[in-house]
Amino acid sequence: MVGQGDGGPMLSYPIPSTAALEPPAEWAQLRQQCPVARVTLPSGDEASLVTRYEDVRQVLSDPRFTRPAHTDDAARISASESGGVFNSEMAMSIPQAGEGHQRWRRMIGKWFTAKRMAALRPGMEAMAERLIDDMLERGHPADLKASLGFPLPVWVICDLLGVPDSDRDTFAYWSDTLLNLTRYTQAEIDAAQAEFVRYMAAHIAAKRAEPGEDLLSELITGTDADGERLSDATLVATGQGLLVAGHETTANMIGKMVAMLLADRRRWEQLLADRSLVRSAVEEALRFDANPGFGMPRYLGEEIEVAGTLLPRGTTVVCSMAAANRDESAFDGADEMNLSRSPNPHLAFGAGAHSCLGQSLARTELQAVLEVLLRRLPSLELAVPVEDLHQVEGLAVGGLRDVPVRW
Fold it and tell me: What is the CA radius of gyration of the chain?
């Protein structure tokens, strides 16, 4: 059996998959036989992994489970002692819990309402059109991730933050070092993060001198309900966090979503026949994603029971939202991609007080891209067999290295 708590062999986590678009076989075994499994992280430290829908939802929604902080005896995610997305100065400069976190979320969240995202959608579609024009001009086969999946979310988040998207390759490198599990050395991470902080601090100074119509300009002058302003350190960290979260996950998701839809041509044909399914198809792609990355770590400051297992204070729990999204007790036909599934209460964006702030933005981008692709490239297909797609490795986010397509 997998991942025992009884002295059996311990699973390494993240659990590798044998196919780019398929979940590891261990997920189903863990849900059925070992819902709280002991795992070894890339750092060598141990953690407890939860994979059932109700357990993941419980942990993510319970305020007693907190984000790991420098002061905790939490398991380290990667061998690099600092600079990762879970334990960097950036992460620590943003209030991690309680009222401080909620105030920060309220200040940021008003920029990410569904209404505001809907207003941005025509611009997203126009940018997608331009990127597809460029891709058509270069001819096929093309890499959909490099041609469309990556540049579109970068352009959107840079526009929101008021930073030049011409710096996007640099942002991508800085993001990757923050998301490191096993790819970069500590020296590379430290150097990249120092550059990232300097860049964002200079950008905020420039916005303070000459404000624009962007999120950061508003945050510099904005106050919370108590009249408090964000500190410079929090502004820098917020800019960094939004830049990383705003492009990396969505860029990867665009590639994975299109690959999933083209892997079984009947899915693409179903959308061509009924465009009203785009919204539910995006939600199902988010649920069905077998390669989302690390998941969400939580630290336990007191003894709590999960799935009949008593977890001691000081336990680091890793929530696999993707494994939970394949739980048959929560979703009928959980291992089938059903483009009209409704309702679809997937956990791709987490749950509770720390659920993804940018989920309206991500949903809007994914819907916009899919609408434009269906309209412009109805004959789109994968240019390689599905088994020749390869996962991104060594980072905390999941994705495909490339998505070769033709039309």
Answer: 21
User: DSSP strand E in 137-213: where?
Assistant: 142-143
Other beta carbons less than 10 A from residue 28's beta carbon: 18
Q: Based on the number of CB atoms within 10 Å of its own CB, is 231 exposed (0-12), middle (13-18) or buried (19 or more)?
A: exposed
Q: What is the pLDDT of residues 168-213, one digit of tens each?
A: 778 878 888 877 777 788 888 889 888 999 999 999 999 989 998 8
Show me where the domains of the chain are located.
11-406
Q: For residues 368 and 374, give the distance between their C-alpha atoms in angstroms, rounded to a whole number.
A: 10
Q: Whole-prediction pTM value?
A: 0.90
CA distance 388 to 62: 41
Cα separation, 318 vs 298, in Å, equals 6
User: Which single residue is written with the structure tokens 């490099």?
Assistant: 146
Q: Give the H or E element holding residue 317.
A: strand 316-319
Just give the CATH number of 11-406: 1.10.630.10
Amino acid at 213: E
Sign of the torsion formed by the C-alpha atoms of 275, 276, 279 and 285: negative
If you average pLDDT over residues 33-39, what whole number do you get? 96
**Are residues 13 and 39 in contact, defined by beta-carbon separation less than 8 angstroms?**
yes
3-class SS at 103? helix
Classified as helix, coil or strand, 143 is strand
- The helix/strand count (H/E) of the chain reads as 15, 11
Provide the token pair at 185: 């050395």
Distances (CA, A) of 278 to 257, 258, 349, 373: 11, 12, 18, 11
Whether the CB-CB separation of 161 and 242 falls below 8 Å is answered with yes
What is the three-class DSSP state of 373?
Answer: helix
Q: Using the structure block, give the residue that is written with the tokens 């469309």.
A: 148
The dihedral through the CA atoms of 133, 136, 137, 141 has a sign that is positive
